[in-house]
């Protein structure tokens, strides 16, 4: 590890990420899932909405690798197209949550005082509401559409980011270089954006990746309850609903979509946590398995 | 200590107010009027009747007046009447004093969540301690991987799998409801067993997410404590390893866990919607699901408020637990 100070941080992160085998696998899986979603038409053998009355509830076979559902639709194709929904919801929801979290967290951390008190109290309130109840209520009232789901998951999951950003700001705003910038008369906005924000982004990025995993879980639970993505649009959650309805006769309807959720969530978690270890300077130089 | 406790209790009030204001705003600013459900179902309704209905529910007043009226009633535990056809008061739907305890919705949900909490505590902490004290061993690796997979497993999917395995293929456990059809004919022991049988899968599923998360956290917390100097000192004094682990390390490692348990309450309550739905359990979660599907505003608001109250209560209990385990706080 000689001369590691000379390397840029990004190269260091990359090197440490590569050393962590599980995190690397997670990262590759994340990439693979992206490609599947992006080229859904190539990976799906059938039209996901094509109804086939002659092949209703077929078990997995060579013609239908993951079986068919109660309308004879090909499950593999539906799952490939469903991955688009999961990723889209995951990313947009996390994008919204991260933006809100950064905005409120930086305000609370930088300005302190009453702004901080109000924001922190608001965070306490949001954390005390059983969020899933709130999401269900809102979705049921404004109607389940993919956009509504993205927005409402985003609006109810920013609290962690806000706390994280606030903590980063609290430590960074006392640093000499920030004090120097202020002494030079740099505006608050410029200090926040150019001097503090940039240096606090690494943990935010990690938490965003972990956030994608939990947003995917919430979306699938909503769709499972019938308050998420509406059929015939396929999503992993609503395939599981028909799995539940046919639980006594069609195991494949339950097993495969859940497995897809499991693998996706695990990939994001592995990648996110590996990344967290990679950018944590306290772990540099120590080699943990 | 008592003043600290009182202060925490007082702090709950503004938070609870904030929660109800937020919920009230969200629900009432959503498009459509609460009475739409009542009027749309009935095509014969006249505009006058609609107006009368809106007046009855106070919908013609500005939203802050509506909230004030709602709050005034809620203080007396009156959440209004449900919009559903039976028109029963919300509070009776949630907590029907005419029914035996085990048939009241809030009690059912509470029992399942309390049992899950207990299960999480009883299983996750030993797993975490074991993993930490055997760090790097084969069994530590196995538990770490299992816990990691468990953490990513959607609870409702696991519920389906377990229903298939234990309910359908093996036929060992019932997969729906809280008691069998022939419950009333069973002996006392038979009744107890029947209840237990029906609770096994729901309690396991509702504790599952917390189980994985908490054992991971416990392992980390324990590892952190074990590296501290005072643990080295305790060992150097020649204390037995068990004494070092269970008396010196465990108590300190438990502190962050207690806070976490308090924070887990909203997740547990939220999860009850899903597992009560899957297992057909007549609890508060199922009621909430039905109430949002039928846009039963008073019922939705009532359950949201009670859920938030339970969450705050969980946080308070966590604080008390924290106080009991940490003499440093007690001394203050």
Main features:
heterodimer; A: 289 residues; mainly alpha; 13 helices; 70% helix; B: 332 residues; 14 helices; 75% helix
In round numbers, the mean pLDDT of chain B is 84
Q: What's the Cα radius of gyration of chain A?
A: 22 Å
Question: What structural class do helix, strand and pairing data of chain A support?
Answer: mainly alpha
* Biggest sheet architecture of chain B: none
Average pLDDT of chain A: 87
Count of strand segments of chain A: 0
The oligomeric status of these chains comes to heterodimer
Radius of gyration of chain B: 24 Å
Structural class of chain B: mainly alpha
* Proportion in helices of chain B: over 70%
SSE pattern of chain B: HHHHHHHHHHHHHH
Tell me the number of strands of chain B.
0
Which chains have the largest interface?
A-B, 43 and 49 residues
Shape of chain A: elongated
> Low-confidence parts of chain A, pLDDT < 50 over ≥5 residues?
none
Order of helices and strands of chain A: HHHHHHHHHHHHH
Question: What's the arrangement of secondary structure elements?
Answer:
The complex is a heterodimer of chains A (289) and B (332).
Chain A (H helix, E strand, L loop, with lengths): L8 H11 L1 H18 L1 H4 L31 H37 L1 H16 L2 H12 L3 H10 L3 H14 L3 H8 L4 H9 L4 H24 L11 H10 L5 H29 L10
Helix pairs in contact in A: 1-13, 2-4, 2-13, 4-5, 4-7, 4-8, 4-11, 6-7, 8-11, 9-10, 11-12, 11-13, 12-13
Chain B lengths: L1 H28 L6 H5 L6 H10 L6 H13 L14 H5 L10 H29 L4 H15 L2 H15 L18 H39 L2 H8 L4 H39 L4 H10 L3 H29 L1 H5 L1
Helix pairs in contact in B: 1-13, 6-7, 6-9, 6-11, 7-9, 8-9, 8-11, 9-11, 10-11, 11-12, 11-13, 12-13
């Amino acid at each position: 590890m000689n001369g590691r100070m000379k390397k840029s941080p990004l190269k260091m992160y990359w090197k440490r990420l590569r050393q962590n085998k599980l995190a690397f696998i997670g990262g590759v899986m994340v990439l693979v899932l992206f490609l599947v979603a992006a080229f859904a038409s190539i990976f799906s053998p059938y039209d996901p909405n094509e109804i086939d009355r002659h092949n209703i509830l077929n078990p997995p076979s060579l013609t239908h690798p993951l079986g068919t559902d109660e309308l004879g639709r090909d499950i593999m194709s539906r799952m490939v197209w469903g991955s688009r929904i999961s990723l889209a919801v995951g990313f947009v929801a996390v994008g919204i949550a991260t933006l809100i979290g950064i905005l409120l967290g930086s305000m609370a951390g930088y300005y302190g005082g009453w702004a901080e008190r109000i924001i922190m109290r608001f965070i306490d309130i949001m954390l005390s509401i059983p969020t899933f109840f709130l999401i269900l209520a809102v979705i049921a009232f404004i109607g389940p559409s993919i956009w509504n789901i993205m927005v409402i998951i985003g609006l109810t999951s920013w609290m962690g980011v806000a706390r994280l950003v606030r903590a980063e700001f609290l430590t960074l705003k006392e640093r000499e270089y920030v004090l120097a910038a202020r002494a030079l008369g740099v505006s608050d906005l410029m200090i926040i954006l150019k001097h503090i924000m940039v240096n606090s982004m690494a943990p935010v990025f990690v938490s965003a990746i972990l956030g994608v995993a939990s947003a995917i879980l919430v979306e699938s639970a909503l769709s499972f309850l019938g308050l998420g993505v509406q059929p015939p649009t396929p999503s992993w959650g609503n395939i599981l609903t028909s799995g539940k309805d046919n639980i006594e006769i069609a195991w494949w309807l339950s097993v495969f979509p859940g497995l897809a959720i499991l693998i996706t969530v695990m990939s994001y978690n592995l990648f996110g946590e590996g990344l967290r270890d990679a950018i944590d300077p306290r772990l540099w130089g120590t080699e943990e398995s | 200590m008592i003043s600290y406790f009182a202060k925490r209790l007082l702090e709950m009030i503004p938070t609870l107010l904030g929660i109800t204001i937020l919920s009230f705003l969200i629900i009432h600013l959503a498009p459509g009027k609460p009475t739409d459900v009542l009027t749309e179902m009935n095509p014969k309704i006249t505009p006058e009747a609609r107006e009368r209905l809106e007046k009855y529910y106070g919908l013609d007043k500005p939203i802050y007046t509506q909230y004030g009226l709602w709050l005034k009633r809620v203080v007396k535990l009156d959440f209004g009447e449900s919009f559903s056809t039976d028109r029963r008061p919300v509070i009776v739907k949630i907590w029907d004093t005419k029914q035996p305890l085990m048939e009241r919705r809030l009690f059912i949900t509470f029992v399942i969540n309390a049992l899950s909490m207990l299960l999480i505590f009883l299983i996750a902490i030993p797993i975490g301690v074991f993993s930490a004290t055997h760090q790097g061993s084969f069994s530590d690796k196995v538990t770490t991987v299992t816990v990691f997979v468990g953490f990513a497993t959607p609870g409702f999917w696991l519920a389906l799998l377990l229903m298939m395995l234990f309910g359908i293929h093996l036929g060992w456990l019932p997969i729906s409801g809280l008691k069998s059809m022939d419950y009333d004919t069973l002996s006392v022991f038979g009744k107890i067993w029947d209840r237990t049988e029906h609770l096994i899968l729901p309690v396991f599923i509702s504790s599952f997410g917390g189980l994985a998360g908490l054992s991971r956290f416990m392992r980390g917390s324990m590892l952190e404590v074990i590296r501290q100097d005072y643990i080295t000192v305790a060992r150097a004094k020649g204390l037995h390893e068990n004494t070092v682990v269970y008396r010196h390390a465990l108590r300190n490692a438990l502190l962050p866990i207690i806070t976490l348990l308090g924070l887990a309450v909203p997740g547990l309550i939220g999860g009850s919607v899903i597992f009560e739905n899957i297992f057909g359990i007549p609890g508060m979660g199922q009621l909430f699901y039905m109430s949002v599907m039928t846009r039963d505003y008073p019922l939705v608001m009532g359950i949201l408020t009670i859920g938030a109250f339970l969450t705050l209560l969980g946080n308070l209990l966590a604080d008390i637990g924290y106080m009991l385990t940490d003499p440093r706080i007690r001394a203050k």
